[in-house]
Amino acid sequence: MIYLDYNATAPLRPEARAAMEPWWGRPANPSAAHSLGRDAAMAVDRARAAVAAMVGWPAEGVVFTSGASESNATVLSRGRWAVSAVEHPSVAKWGAAVLPVDGHGRVELGAIDVVDGVDGVSVMLANNESGVVQPIAAVIERARRRGWVVHVDAAQAPGRVDLADLRGADFVTLASHKLGGPQGVGALLVSPRLAAAPLVPGAAQERGWRAGTHNVAGIVGFGAAALAVGAPLSGALRDRLEAALVARGGVVAGAGAPRMPNTTFVAFEGREAPELVMALDLAGVAVSAGSACASGAARPSAVLAAMGFRGSAVRFSLGVATTESEVDAAITAVDTVLAYG
What we know:
Blueprint: E1 2-3, H1 14-20, H2 35-55, E2 62-65, H3 68-76, E3 81-84, H4 89-92, E4 95-99, H5 110-114, E5 120-122, H6 136-146, E6 149-153, E7 171-175, E8 186-190, H7 216-228, H8 236-247, E9 250-252, E10 263-268, H9 273-282, E11 285-286, H10 302-307, E12 314-317, H11 324-339
Helix pairs in contact: 1-7, 2-7, 8-11
């Protein structure tokens, strides 16, 4: 199988697997006072430092969670929020106001100046479906003028785009499995100046932000994956794939905006994306019809609708292990699929 669905979940990095193995089955509760507990606590804090360093965030502001959806809910379930029209469902559901996007999928900054009745704004750094990168620095600047709190869902961004602008936000969401760590682990980055308001109350783990016994093996794997993330990917392989798809009649959503270098979201006239996904799967290529969180549902992509893009689209998302030969084989598979109506 040629795996071109990294935006759904990235394969586990070998560095993460190796780091996790010593902790599988080990009785390691970081809250315990004995030496095994202290060892676990130190391992969690090393992972915390690694995740913090990846973004340039204070380590004391890294809160480990079960994933991006929990991190988003921890922040957004409180207060009233303006959210962009292309947010992940775990953000969109909390929106009290919606900020429109242009035809390329970029948020209309002027809308921030006129929306009322909200306490903060949530705009993702990079879109999980189209790959479009939002002007986060400009969003933060305008939000500060309104006195708003700023949340950024950056789950898709590490290893794909520059993360420097995140440092101006109040809250940032990360997901381990998007960058090659294990599933079921995420982080909420919190400005140290903000007080704790946990979604999961109870004991005082994670400085009061999130109660519950730590998933030590998962957190250690997340930290190892964060350490392994290097400079953003080159877009050469994506461009090679995209050029071939366009030559075959594909229309790329968000092509006129800055995008992650691994993602192309492409529609073919007269062809429904779910059917193409199934046909490509049978041909040995794994892709998605938009968000993996919604691709099993028979409904149009909200991202495409917000962009005014007609039809459905197939998402090809590449990663660090994708090779030129895999891209070429995927192009051949597309030819085969398109040849049969």
